Amino acid sequence: MVRRVQIGNCGVTYYAEGDPRHPAILFLHGFMGDCHEFKQAIAGLSKQFYCVAIDLMGHGQTHLIDQAPQDAVIVTKQEHYYTIQASAYLVIEFLDFLRLDCCFLIGYSMGGRLALYLTIHFPQYFHKVVLESASAGLSTDTERSDRLAKDQQLAAKLESGDFRQFLEYWYQQPIFASLRSHPHFPELLEQRLNNSPSQLSKSLRNLSTGMQPSLWEDLPKIEIPLLLLAGELDPKFVKINQQMEQLTKGSQLEIVPNCGHNIHFENTELFVEKIQAFFSK
């Protein structure tokens, strides 16, 4: 069931399925996703868990509800709500609103970076964490600067062009090669069209890996059990997650066969099996 609540001056939309008396899982989608990103996986997990998936800021139907005039100062101030820090606080306030004192956490790609940030800064809220095709950010100022410049160009492209053309351009990236060949890929594209290009551009500029602080130095401090998932056909993120596993004492890495970047979509059944096994230990 899709629901909407007000958290501060943000209208937050989320999708929930399962018995609220069961252990809870919070799902965080990737860039251009929404609360329906994990819907197929949730169908397989909701018999055992209370599954909650949120629209992150700039995605789906979650947005600011402050109707103040849009002058330059206000617009600049509002951009803060799209950063990783503000997104993390919004998630924590959302969990407090639902009275979920401690839950399981799953984050995919951009949502995985946010999930890792939450794991480091708000560990008391989470039993175990699954990071799917995620990273700890970029470790040098030069890397962050270069990435931010690229993401700002992409954000401008989002705002000025045809959204469907942007989607086709975005999914030409090598990490999505196996996803493009999936029989239900056209349906995924249609779901992405439910987003607002102007809102996505704000997320892209402010939640870019070029903007987020590097989390690499924090990895050895993590005590929560982590499951790192990377697709066999996504060598860039296999390498990143191998490095993350080496630095995080409570982590285990599983490289998922015949999958690329979007494991939960490319092989939902196997994804669900791995989640059930990890959370049931």
Output the keywords.
281 residues; EC 4.2.99.20; menaquinone biosynthesis; 12 helices; 9-stranded mixed beta sheet; alpha/beta; Putative 2-succinyl-6-hydroxy-2,4-cyclohexadiene-1-carboxylate synthase; Rossmann fold; 18% strand
- Named at the architecture level, the CATH assignment is 3-Layer(aba) Sandwich
Q: Which class of secondary structure composition applies to the elements?
A: alpha/beta
Sketch the topology as an H/E string, one letter per element. EEEHEEHHEHEHHHHHEHEHH
Residues in β-strands, percent: 15-25%
Largest sheet: 9 strands, mixed
**Helix percentage:** 40-55%
| Number of distinct helices | 12
What's the name of the CATH homologous superfamily? Answer: Alpha/Beta hydrolase fold, catalytic domain
Q: Do you know the CATH topology? A: Rossmann fold
- CATH class annotation: Alpha Beta
Uncertain parts: none
What is the global morphology? globular
End-to-end separation in angstroms reads 29 Å
Instruction: Write down how many β-strands occur, each being a DSSP E stretch of 2 or more residues.
Output: 9
Domain count: the total is 1
- What value does the average pLDDT take? 94
Task: Return Rg in Å.
Answer: 18 Å
Describe the structure.
The chain has twelve helices and nine strands. It is an alpha/beta fold and 281 residues long. It has a single domain, classed as Rossmann fold. It is globular. The model has no long low-confidence stretch (mean pLDDT 94). Belongs to the AB hydrolase superfamily. MenH family. This is Putative 2-succinyl-6-hydroxy-2,4-cyclohexadiene-1-carboxylate synthase.
